[in-house]
Amino acid sequence: MTLPIKPWIPGLAVYEPGRPIEEVAREFGFEHSDELIKLASNENALGPSRKAIRAMKRVASNMHRYPDGGAYYLREALAARFGVAANHIVVGHGSNELIALLGHVFLEPGTSLVMADRAFSIYRLVAQLYQADVIAVPMCDYTHDLDAMLGAIRPDTRLVFITNPNNPTGTFVTRAALDRFVERAPPHVAIVLDEAYVELLPPNRQPDSVRYVREGRPVFVLRTFSKIYGLAGLRIGYALAPPEGVEAIHRVRQPFNVNAMGLEAALAALADEAHVIRTRHMVVRGLRQLETGFRNLKLNWVPSAVNFVLVKVGDGRRVFEALERKGVIVRAMDGYGLPEFIRVTVGTRAENRRFLEALGEVLNTGR
Questions:
Q1: Backbone dihedral angles phi then psi of residue 50, each to the nearest 5 degrees
Q2: pTM of the complete model
Q3: C-alpha–C-alpha distance, residues 107 and 10, integer Å
């Protein structure tokens, strides 16, 4: 049987996610999944907000009902938080869905997007899906080179993605640099500021990117409840954007794209500032612990501002596989053009210690 699949689909690259604990446990013969630790997907080691957990329990018996397709209450709460009207906000099945929807709205054959060469790989995959060109601009010291990205924009460019802070390098660009870029960008492009990790920064270091939306700039600010709020399993993200852009996304998104439990959990999590503060403190302490460990192991790393860090270990894929055999799941970085690195998420103090011990054993013995 030959299916009439579009000819470019078999050639699409496939995203390599952090491997689930259960999958690694099956492969390497661990009897219990709690024998493993996962530091691969930049999840919040503290878990969800307690308020979010209570909200999920409260609404669990209503899961036979369809969710609010317009995410009314969450959009109203976000609008109040950011000082915009609700028609500036669209909620998605994680910010990943919103990236794909932006591709649906803006990209087609003969168009292009601009991104940093070592930024979130999903942008490339979305461009390929809509048969658009990818203009990948080399980073400078593992950080977006905004001047070079500005110079790379072509007449056919429709989207520019700036991941801030950046995954997988953990670096970020300053408010002043963003201001210069937004002021100088040509009017025919939409600027996408992917800020999945921005709330992990101290408030005084977070750029006021929503200001561009308030000013009517062609800017889409992407945020998520997956990271600092610890709700990755529920897949809730949102975009702040010009009403015209929000309306376009509504035209192409599917109905009921966000589940009812996720909507309730996100609304509750948004009100739990104590959980946000605890998470930031955990990340600061965890980064210090990991950096001390890397220093003791005589390893180089890329200084990070968020809850993950790139560390140079030699053959990153080999070290990644050896750590899995010890029950420690991290991420290999060869898919990002960084074959000598692994990326590790900040975990609890005990998880960080176990990772460092396992890493030392692998580097010393080769297994």
A1: -60, -35
A2: 0.95
A3: 19
DSSP line for 212-271: HHHTT-SEEEEEESSSTT--GGG--EEEE--HHHHHHHHHHSPTT-S-HHHHHHHHHHHT
**Count of C-beta atoms within a 10 Å radius of residue 35:** 11
| Dist CA 133 CA 138 (whole Å) | 16
- Give 96-134 pLDDT, tens digit per residue: 999 999 999 999 999 999 999 999 999 999 999 999 999
Rounded (to 5) percent helix, strand, coil in the chain: 45, 15, 40
- The answer to whether 224 and 95 are in contact (CB under 8 A) is yes
Using DSSP, state whether 328 is helix, strand or coil.
Answer: strand
Cα gap 177→280, rounded to integer Å: 24
Cβ–Cβ under 8 Å, residues 340 and 313 = yes
Tokens 């209450």, located at residue: 73
Token pair of 284, please? 């600061």
DSSP codes, 36-97: -EE-SS---TT-S-HHHHHHHHHHGGGTTSPP-TT-HHHHHHHHHHHTS-GGGEEEESHHHH
Residue 168 DSSP SS3: coil
